[in-house]
Design a protein that fits this description.
Elements: E1 3-10, H1 14-25, E2 30-34, H2 41-44, E3 48-49, H3 61-81, E4 86-94, H4 97-107, H5 110-113, E5 123-125, E6 128-130, E7 132-141, H6 143-156, E8 160-162, E9 171-173, E10 176-179, E11 182-189, E12 209-218, E13 225-227, E14 231-234, E15 240-243, H7 256-269, E16 274-284, E17 293-296, E18 303-307, H8 313-327
Parallel strand pairs: 1-2, 1-11, 2-8, 4-13, 11-18
Antiparallel strand pairs: 3-7, 4-7, 5-6, 9-10, 10-11, 12-15, 12-16, 13-14, 14-15, 17-18
Helix pairs in contact: 1-8, 3-8
This protein binds flavin-adenine dinucleotide.
Length: 344
């Protein structure tokens, strides 16, 4: 007997999890197939949610548009799962000399004045003092915990099959998609950077970047976020994550040179008493215009994607999933439709 669903989602990272969870709330029957073998960028990510981002202290519209929805989505999950998934931490943003000038300039601009602190908060790490500004509106999602809670939730509801799907296993009919004993009206790819493995998306312009990240144990840790060109954030089991590197590299394994780059950043910040638990890496699925994509292909209308969250998936995916699930299968945010990604 065929199992019939409205939607089949491929990939259970933050994108697939949010979309499946929210479609379910709209009464849309959904099943997920997710690989137990392929790495999941969402587990590795720092889970930082901040308005001001990057070395240029910028305030991107994409973040402002989704920030509040993201925070309230995770706060709501705190009560659903009855465990803190998102937490607010004080954040020290260490500024080098050019960023100090930038900060002085931006402080006086109306757009930034609500978000940038007006005073410096000098900050010391083991007697090394840095010029820094302090933010109070930084949230950190416990990414490992959240993904595990979602996995357990979907398993309990019989909504998840752990399997690495291959393209030749899918059959596309005029009004549905079939795989083994599953038939669905729509299939939506939430496979992150693995989108490039599918010939369905071979014409998409992608500039994925790889990031390596350390998990470490600090002696005498304070639960706070510290940022320079890298960031340190509290994670699960009293560990901290320290990341991350950016490079164009298609390999899946972390690199020795990135390990040394991260360790020397820790040294420059003044950390001397820490032990490294592990190093992990993942690719950020990034389209040419650095915007995510959601919607169906014009060539095969039962095939959708929800992907391209680059380095901001924890901020943008929940709010976009909310928008899509409310109007499903239609879409309001037309500028994100995938046809824009086809290379001319
Ligand atoms: C080092 C690093 C740090 C980051 N830090 C942050 C941060 O602090 N804040 C933030 O907002 N974002 C951060 N990001 C970005 C964030 O991780 C991504 O935007 C987000 O995780 C993308 O989620 P996704 O669900 O699209 O992809 P993924 O999390 O990669 O999920 C894809 C899923 O698809 C599955 N899959 C792939 N192929 C198949 C197949 N053939 N069959 C079945 N399943 C398949 C994979 O196993 C995986 O589970 C960071 C990224 C990196 C690399």
């Amino acid at each position: 007997m065929k199992q019939k669903y409205d939607v089949l989602i491929i990939g259970q990272g933050i994108a697939g999890s949010c979309l499946a969870y929210l479609l379910l709330q709209q009464g849309i029957s959904t099943h997920i197939i997710s690989s137990p073998l392929k790495p999941n960028a969402s587990r590795i990510a720092g889970g930082l949610i901040q308005r001001i981002s990057g070395n240029f202290l910028s305030l991107p519209d994409l973040i402002q548009d989704h920030f509040d929805d993201a925070v309230s989505f995770y706060n709501n999950l705190n009560s659903v799962f009855k465990i803190p998934i998102i937490q607010n931490y004080p954040t020290f943003r260490i500024l080098d000399s050019s960023q100090l000038k930038l900060w002085e300039k931006k402080c006086s601009q109306k757009r930034y004045s609500a978000y940038l602190p007006l005073n410096l908060s000098p900050f010391s790490i083991n007697q090394k003092t840095h010029q820094a500004i302090k933010f109070n509106e930084t949230y950190v999602v416990n990414t490992e915990l959240l993904l595990t809670l979602f996995t357990n939730f979907f398993i309990k509801k019989n909504m998840l099959t752990l399997y690495t799907l291959q393209e030749h296993e899918l059959t596309f009919k005029k009004d549905r998609v079939e795989f083994n004993n599953i038939t669905a009206n729509y299939i939506i790819f939430c496979v992150g950077s693995f989108l490039k493995e599918w010939s369905l998306f071979k014409n998409f312009s992608m500039t994925n970047s790889k990031g390596d990240i350390l998990s470490l144990r600090l002696h005498n840790p304070e639960k706070q976020v510290i940022q320079s060109d890298k960031w340190l954030a509290p994670a699960e089991d009293n560990l901290f994550k320290f990341g991350s590197t950016y490079e164009q590299d298609s390999s899946l394994a972390p690199k020795k040179s990135n390990y040394y780059e991260l360790c020397s950043s820790l040294d420059r910040l003044g950390f001397c008493d820490y032990s490294i638990h592990n190093i992990a890496s993942a690719h950020r699925c990034t389209f040419y215009d650095y915007k995510p994509s959601m919607g169906f292909l014009s060539s095969i209308p039962q095939v959708g994607i929800f992907s391209g969250f680059s380095s901001k998936g924890y901020i943008t995916a929940p709010s976009l999933a909310q928008q899509w699930s409310r109007t499903f299968p239609g879409i309001k945010t037309k500028e994100l439709l995938p046809h824009r990604l086809n290379r001319r």
